[in-house]
Amino acid sequence: MIANERPLLELEGVKKSYPIKRKSLTFKKDYIHAVNGITLDIMARETLGVVGESGCGKSTLGRTILQLETLNEGSVKFKSQDVSKVSKAKKMQLKRDMQMIFQDPYASLDPRQKVGRALEEPLLIHTKKTKSERQTKVNQLLKEVDLTEEHAERYPHQFSGGQRQRIGIARALALDPQFIVCDEAVSALDVSVQAQVIQLFQSLQENHDLTYLFISHDLSVIRYISDRILVMYLGNMAELAPANVLYNYPKHPYTKTLLSAIPSFTVNERKERLKLKDTDEKNGPVTGCPFEPRCPMAKDHCKTLIPEWREINPGHFVACHEV
Amino acid sequence: MQNSNENLLRVEELKIEFSSSKGPTRAVNDITFNVSKGETVCIVGESGSGKSITLLSIMKLLSKNGEITNGNIHFQGNNMRNLSNKQMRKIRNQEISMIFQDPMTALNPVFTIGYQITETILNHSGLSKKATHERVIELLTLVGIPAPKQRIKQYPHELSGGMRQRVMIAIALSNNPKLLIADEPTTALDVTIQSQILDLIQDLKEKFNMGVLFVTHDMSVVTEIADRILVMYGGKIVEEGTVEDVMVNPKHPYTEGLLNSVPDINRPDRPLEPIPGSPPSLDDDIPGCHFHPRCKYAMEECSIEYPSTFTIDSDHHVNCWLQKTGEWSHHVSESEVLYDSQ
Ligand SMILES: Nc1ncnc2c1ncn2[C@@H]1O[C@H](COP(=O)(O)OP(=O)(O)OP(=O)(O)O)[C@@H](O)[C@H]1O
Ligand SMILES: Nc1ncnc2c1ncn2[C@@H]1O[C@H](COP(=O)(O)OP(=O)(O)OP(=O)(O)O)[C@@H](O)[C@H]1O
Ligand code: SF4
Ligand SMILES: [Mg+2]
Ligand SMILES: [Mg+2]
Predict the structure, then answer these.
(1) Which residues form the ABC transporter domain (chain B) (predicted)?
(2) Is A7-18+31-318 a CATH 3.40.710.10 domain?
(3) A153 CB near a chain B CB, below 8 Å?
C-alpha cells in the first residue's frame, strides 16, 4: 500500500436495514440492522478480509457495495465517484469493474441456462467480442477454474457443489473486473481445489491489480489471503487491523473469542474455547456497545456508552471501552 | 464395530452412471462400505469425486439422467433397490434424513421457515399444535438461530447463508432419524456455531444410536466427529480406515496430498501445496490407477492396472501399488505439529 494513493473504494457510514414483519396492529416498525455504519477504505491491489459470525451482515455489506441492495444511509465511492450518483453509461462500466462471487452458487445461476451460455452472457452484454472470441474466452475461463470445455454444455444441476462454486468464480472473472467481492467463494471447495483457487486469486491480483473484499468464516483461509481484516459484530465494525497484527494481538473481546475457536487438527483433542455469554437479544442494545450483552469483559459503562472507533496503533482500529 | 447385525446401511459394489449426449459416463465406480448404528463415517475427497452422488443415490434422489447400474444398497437389512417410490418416501420421512449441500434445494422459497419445520414435525409425530410450535422453537435454538420466535416468520431468502443452512439442519434432525446423511452441512458456518452443530449431532448419535454418513472437505471436522473415514477419488474409494489410521498414517498419495493442502493457521507463510494437475473428468478413461497422472510416486504398473486393495491392518485398507513393497510411508509436512496421536 502506498501511503498517499487514493483508495479504490471509500465506504462512509454505510447502513442497510430490513423491516421485520409483525402481526401487531401498531404501525411502529422494527428493523434488523444488517449493516449498521461501516466506514473504511479499500486500497487498490489489497485483499480486505471480512469475518464475523453467521448473520452479522457480511453478505449484505458485499451486496450493498455493489449496489445489489440500496443502502439506507452513507455512501460508497469507487475511484472517488459516488456509485449511487453516476450516469447511466458509467453505471454499465461499474457493473463490469465490480463483481461478486455469491455465497450460494445455486441461487445465482439460472437453472435453465447452460453453463457456457451463463458465462457468455456478460461478454455479450458488456463487450464487442465476436462469437469466436467469446467462445475462446469462455473456454479459457473454464480452464482457469479447473473445468473443461465439455462442461459448457451442462446445466447447473449437473455439477457437483464445488464445481458450481467454480462456475460462479469463472463468471465473476469474465469481464476482467477490478474489484471482486468474494463471498465464501472457496468454502464449498475441498482443500486441494481450494488451494488452487486461492493461488488463482493471488496471481490475478499480481498480474491484473485486482482488489478483493474476501468474506469467509474460515479463519485459516482469511489469514492466508488477507492483507487487512475487518471483524464485524451485528452489523458493526468491531476491529480492523493488518492480518498479522489481528492474529497476534487481537484487542476486541469478540475477536479474541473468535480466534480461540479455531479448531486444531489434533485427533481426539478439543481446544479450550473462550465462551460468550448467551443472550436472547437479537440486535443488542441501542444505547451501548452492541457486543455488551455477550461480552465477558463488559463493565457498567458498556451498557450506556457506544464505544468509539479508535486507532490504537497505526492501522489498528478497535471499538471497545476496555482496550 | 463391524458386527454385521449392527449394520444400519450397507452399500455394495455401487456403480452410478449419467447419460449424456456423448453416451454414458460413470460417476461412481464400484464402491462398498458400511455404516453401523451409532457410528459416524466421513467421506472426504476431491470436488467431483462422487460424494454427493453416492449420498443422493442412497436417498433415491439422483437426477433423471443418473442411474444405479450395479450394486445394492441395504438399509436395516432391506434392499432399497426393491422399494417402491412410496415406500422410499416413507423411509425418507421417518428413518433417513438428509442435509443437502445446497440449502436452497431443500427449502421452499414460498413458505416461511416456521411453516416448513412445523410441517415436517406434524408429518411424523403425534404432537399437538402447541407442542409442535415449542419443538420448532427448541430446534432453532439448538442450531443457534437467535430470536427464533421472530425468525419463524421469515422466508428463506430473508436469512443469511449460514442461517439457511442451520434451518435445513433443524429440519433434518426434527424427527430423530435412524440414519443421518449430511452433505457438507457446515460449509457456511463459523467455527463456534459449527462446533455447536457437531455437538448436537454427536448428542443425537449417542442418545438414539443414530448412524451418521457425513461428507466434508474440512479436515478439522473430520478429526472432531469421525469414527471412520472413506477417501474418494475419481468415483472410487481409495483409502479407508479409522481417523487415526487415515489422518496420522495416510497410505495413499492422494490422502497425503489432501492433508498437505490444508492451510495451517499457525504458519500462514507456508505455501499451500495443492495436488498438481486436475481431478479426472468423468469422460477421461484413465487406465490403471486413476490418480497416476497426478501422483508423484507413480511407477510403471500404476498406469497399467488398477491397484488391488491392500490391508494395512484390520480396519485400514488402501488401493495403491506402493503397498506392494510395503515400504512407503507418508510425507505430510509438519506432521508433528498437526497430528498428535497419543
Ligand atoms: N432480504 C432480506 N430481508 C430481510 N432480512 C435480511 C435480508 N437479507 C439479509 N437479512 C438479514 O440481515 C442479517 C445479515 O445477513 P447477511 O446475509 O448479511 O449475514 P452474513 O454475515 O453474510 O451471514 P452468513 O455468514 O450466515 O452468510 C441477517 O439477520 C439476515 O436475516
Ligand atoms: N446430473 C448430472 N449429469 C452429469 N454429470 C453429473 C450430474 N450430476 C453430477 N455429475 C458429475 O458427477 C461427478 C460427481 O459429482 P458429485 O456431486 O458427487 O461430486 P462431489 O464429490 O460431491 O463434489 P463436491 O465436493 O464438489 O460437491 C461430477 O464430476 C459431476 O460433474
Ligand atoms: S497406485 Fe501408483 S499412481 Fe496410484 S497412488 Fe499409488 S503410487 Fe500413485
Ligand atoms: Mg453471508
Ligand atoms: Mg458434493
Answers:
(1) 9-259
(2) no
(3) yes
